[in-house]
Amino acid sequence: MQEILNQYFKRDEKNELVPIEENGKIFAILKNKWLEAKPEEIIRQKFIAKLIEEYGYVSEQMAQEVKVSNSKRGSGKAQADIVVWKTKEDKINQKNAFLVIECKAPTIKLKLEDCYQGMNYATWSRAKIFAIYNDNEMQVYKIDESKIPILSDSFKPINDIPKANEILDENKLEKFLQKTKEFKGDEFARLLHKCHNIIRNNDKLSPEAAFDEISKVLFIKIMYERSPKQEGIFSLQQFKKLKSAWELARGKSDKAESYMQKLFEDVKEEFKNDGIFEDNEKIKLKESTFEAIVKELEIYNLTKTGADVKGIAFEKFLSKTFRGQLGQFFTPRTIVDFMVDFINPKENELICDPCVGSGGFIIKAFEKIKENIENEYKFKKFELQKKIFGENQEYLDNKEKQKEFEKILSKLNNEEQMRLKQLSCCAIYGTDANPRMARVAKINMIMHGDGHSGIHHHDGLLNINGIFRNRFDVILTNPPFGITYNNDLPKVQEDDKFKDERLIEEYKKKYGEIYEEELKQVTDNIGKPIRNLFEVGKYTGKSEVLFIERCLDLLKPKGRMGIVLPEGVLNSSDLEKARELFEGRAKIKLIVSLPDEVFLSAGATVKTSLVFLQKYSEEEKNEFEKIKQECENELKEKLKIYEKENQLSIIKKNLRNKKLEKEIKEKLRKNKKEIEKELKQLYKYLETKLMPCVRENFDYEILVADIKKAGITSTGDMTDNELIELLKELKSIKVWE
């Protein structure tokens, strides 16, 4: 087989075998003849060569462009690009195929549900594995025969295609098929750790500094690989090639001291609107270290590798790096999952986390909505198949029906892409005061399929770009605890002002006059304490309490909010006034008390609760204020009655009488003081009755749950998770209005 490969294939710049073209034709090994060099044929022959060289299969056990019929009477025929049998004997004896592959053009995004020919062939021929390939990416699925054929539930993603020598041993094969896609994620996570250690060892940087540098390299790689002007993967070979060209063409006006720094300058320009890099920031690595990292990462194309693989891997890397080495605080995944699933964000809603951290909440929300959109289109496509090709796919090999299907399929894919783009570009927002965390969140979002453009390095208590008051449908956050904003510091700084006039004009057009008004929250308060921007600041400067008001400010009327809070906020007597203030703005929907151990693994010792609120509509707000006023009037009436009973007004009148004897006046003054003291005490007492009176008349149900196990132990290990059952119970009740 190697002789045939050497004769009809050559190596490209990525050292991959590609078919040699002669007179517009390429040699098809499995057909043993020359075929027109169409893009799809080139891809198919490349993959056949890969199966032979990398996986050890032989041409005698493979075939291309094979048709098969369903066993049901009257069904049509499905065609597969490449079919592989376990042995050449199985092929000769027309036994069931083992592996079916469908090839797509490099420009087509791989979607399982779009590969209707290959999927049908794979299920009808009872194949074990189905793979799809487009020269940039390969997706591999095992086929579960117990599921209904064709539905995507029948296809479970696995790591790779097994080698030819693995498929004959049933035990080895079964073990291989048990591997899921997360195994690739593990590989990528280990590679990121390796890169992190290379930086620490070569350049002697601290864990924090090493992470900052690897994030810069990742940004360069991402920017390169998603540019249509560049060639495929950002490899070491490609870096050196571009570096040589840059050095030859470099002019005196180019300020970058090296090509490595030039690439980073391009990254800063690309992400300048997000404020995640300082203007004077540079890569702090030796060029040899930079090249070593590029070499390690070149096996992955970060724009082509599936978002699930990249996302899982990057989260694992973050989890170990930040918890273990950087000591940064992260919200455990079990808590994030529960909060997002309970809030249930929807398409066309605006979502924000003003303390974004690594981006856990917004990523989960993004993934949840994205999955819903994708599932909707999967269902539409399966229904379309039945409508056009018939319930038994009897018209599957009808060319006119295929054209009709492809036309509608293309329209559906465009619709789906537009909706996903809207979600990615316009629905997700986050800020973090720590530049490192803003950077982490942005990379993390890109790894999970983009949606990074709304993330900013900025104080979460202040307005920035698209993050301002009365704008969001959903807020999900875990604010910083234990930081005190006093009456002097910190202040709103000149640096907090957004000064890019070009972007300000863009945002004015995008958001209208309200944007200009919202900028004043910063521009009109330069030099003033941040605490004083908030009503609750009269009573406390605790960061977690200020962020409750900030989140309520950000929400639209009827907006939903989930927040992690220390339990002291809910029961501390010195925060009673703050709680009353929040009760006047939102309904408390649910309080979930968490076990102490949940945040211990992250180094936090404070007992926490999850609090879910829904901001009042205008009608509810007016009703609340009306009831509060009625209660206040009722209490004031009681004070008046007391004053009347004690004839305080008469005493005051007599004290103004100059003719009254001194001794009598002294008695009256003493009596007045006693009455006023009693009135003050009574007023305080009646004041404590104000909110109970309001709550009694503005009554609604507050759900409370006390969780003993939340899926994570004090050491970070997995354990039972009562939140799953709680969520099931909550879904059976209509909680959100």
From TrEMBL:
One record GO biological process: DNA restriction-modification system
GO molecular function, one term: site-specific DNA-methyltransferase (adenine-specific) activity
Residue stretches making up the DNA methylase adenine-specific domain: 308-391, 422-511, 541-653
Keyword tags: Coiled coil, Methyltransferase, Restriction system, Transferase
Enzyme Commission number(s) from the entry: 2.1.1.72
Family matches, as InterPro entries: DNA_methylase_A-5, DNA_methylase_N6_adenine_CS, HSDR_N, SAM-dependent_MTases_sf, Type-I_RE_MTase_Subunit
Domain Type I restriction enzyme R protein N-terminal stretches: 39-162
Coiled-coil boundaries: 617-685
The keyword Nucleotide-binding is annotated on this UniProt entry: no
Family that this chain belongs to: Belongs to the N(4)/N(6)-methyltransferase family.
Name of the protein in its database record: Type I restriction enzyme M protein
Organism from which the protein derives: Lebetimonas natsushimae
